Amino acid sequence: MVRVTHWIHTIAFFALLISGAAILVAHPRLYWGETGAYGSPALLELPLPLNTDQSGWGRSLHFLAAWLAVGNGSLYMLSGIWRGHFRSNSKSDMMQYTSLQRQTYLTVIFILFPLMIATGLAMSPAVASVVPLLPGIFGGHQSSRTFHFFSAVLLTAFLIVHIAKVYRAGFGDRMRSMISGSGV
Amino acid sequence: MSRILTRRQFLTGVAGVTATTATAAIATRLAGRYGLIPPDHDVLFGVERSLTFGAQRLLLHHQPLAREFRREQISKNFPAINTVMPDSESYRSDIAGGFRNWRLAVNGLVARPGEFSLEDLRRFPSRTQITQHVCEQGWSAIAEWTGVPLSTVLNAAGIQTAAKYVFFTCVDDWWDSLDMADALHPQTLLTYGMNGSNLPVPHGAPVRLRVERQLGYKNLKYLSTITVTDSAAEWGEGKGSQGAEHGYSWYAGI
C-alpha cells in the first residue's frame, strides 16, 4: 500500500506543481489580507512571465490532480495509522531514519499537505460560503493564496532534498525497493 | 511471495474492478438525476468537472450566503477586465440616452415572456451586498452591489417547472448560464448599482450579473437577454458557456 500510494502521489504531485505554475503566471503577485490586484501594493512580485492564457487547462488539471492526491493521501494515512507506520517505537519501520528525518516527514504529511488543502479550499468562494471562517483563519482570501504558494515552495524544497537523499543512499537500490518492495 | 498471479488474486481483482465499475455507473446515474453533472462534463476533464461540481452542489445544498464585508473593506482599486466598452453602435446610443431605451428581454420557459426597462428593474425590491469579486487569474476586490435578485424577476415572469438552466447573453455577444440553484440564490442579483452609484460602463452598465459563490468570470457584464431552458444542448457546443469552449469550466465555485 505504501509503495502504490507513493507512485500515485508522485504523478499527482507533479501534475499539481505544473498546473499550479500555469495558474500562478496568470497573476504572479502575492498579497496579504482579503484583497489585492494590479494597482494595489503587493507583498511579493514574483519574477515570472505574465501569461493569462494557461489557467483554463491549468485549473482543470489542478483539481483533477487534487482529487487524486486527496483520495490517495487519505488511503495512505488511514492504512499508515492502521499499520502503526507513523508510530515511533522500535518495531516501526520509521525507526531506520534519524529523528530529524522523521520530524520532517511527519511535518510534510500532517502539516504541509493539510495546509495545502485548507488554503486551496479557502480560496473557493463556494467553500467560503459554507465555512466563512476558513479564509479568516489564514488572514483573508489573498493571505490564503500566499500561504498556498509558500507551502507549495516548502513541499518542492522537501521533494528536492528527498530525491537528493535517495540518490546518495544508492539510487538503483532505493528505486528497486520502492518499486518491487524487496528490502535493501 | 510468488510473482505469478494466483487464482485467488485474479478473482479478487476481477471482483474489485466489477464492483468499482458498477458503483461508478450507479453514482453517475444518480448524480445525473439530481442535477450534479455539469453540461461541460463531456470533455477532456469531464471526471474532474463532475466531481468538483457535484461535490460543491452537495456541500452548498443548504444554500449558504457568500461572505459579506463591512463598508470600510470596500476596495478603492477594482480592476475592470475583458470588455470595458462594448463595440456596438446601439450600445453607444444607449449610453448617450442614459439607458432609457435599454431593455432586458426575459424569455424561454417562462409563463410571461417580456422586456424590462432599467426603471422596471429599479421598481422591484432591491438588495445591497458588499462582497468579494474573486478573479480566476488570482486577484480579488471588494465592492458594494445593488440590484434586484434574479429570482424576483424570474418569478415575475413565471418560471415553468421544467426549468433547469438560465442562459444570459450580453451586448458584447458573450454568453453563459447558471443552474437553478445559483439562479434562485438570494445573492444572485441583476446589479445596476456599484458602491452607491450607477454601475459604471467598464463594470458592465447598465446591468451586470452578480453570482457571489462563483468566480469573477461568471459575473457577466452588459446583460441583454435572459433565457430559461431545460437543456444546455442547443447553446453553442452544449457545454453551458462560451468560457467552457475556451477551456474554462462552466461551474466556477473554486
Low-pLDDT stretches of chain B are none
- Pattern of helices and strands of chain B: HHHEEHEEHEEHEEEEH
Given the helix and strand composition of chain B, which structural class is it?
alpha+beta
Euclidean distance between termini CA atoms of chain B: 46 Å
Task: Tell me the strand percentage band of chain B.
Answer: 15-25%
- Radius of gyration of chain B over all CA atoms, rounded: 22 Å
Number of domains of chain B: 1
Shape of chain A: globular
Q: What is the number of helical segments of chain B per DSSP (H or I, 4+ residues)? A: 7
Would you list the SSEs of chain A in sequence order as H and E? HEEHHHHHH
Per CATH, the class of chain B reads Alpha Beta
Principal-axes geometry of chain B comes out as elongated
Order of strands across the main sheet of chain A: 1-2
Strand content of chain A is under 5%
**Fraction in helix of chain A:** 55-70%
Largest interface: A-B, 36 and 40 residues
Number of discrete helical segments of chain A = 7
Question: What is the alpha-carbon Rg of chain A in Å?
Answer: 18 Å
Please name the fourth-level CATH homologous superfamily of chain A. Transmembrane di-heme cytochromes, Chain C
Number of strands of chain B: 10
Write down the CATH topology of chain A: Fumarate Reductase Cytochrome B subunit
What does this structure look like?
The complex is a heterodimer of chains A (184) and B (254). Chain A is an all-alpha fold. Chain A has one domain: Transmembrane di-heme cytochromes, Chain C (Fumarate Reductase Cytochrome B subunit, Up-down Bundle), CATH 1.20.950. Chain A is built from seven helices and two strands, in the order αββαααααα. Chain A has a two-stranded antiparallel ribbon. In chain A, helix 1 runs antiparallel to helix 2 and helix 3 runs antiparallel to helix 6. The model of chain A has no long low-confidence stretch (mean pLDDT 92). Chain B has a single domain, classed as Oxidoreductase, molybdopterin-binding domain (Sulfite Oxidase, Chain A, domain 2, Alpha-Beta Complex). The termini of chain B are far apart. The model of chain B has no long low-confidence stretch (mean pLDDT 95). Chain B is an alpha+beta fold. Chain B is elongated, with a radius of gyration of 22 Å. The interface between A and B is large, with 36 and 40 residues.
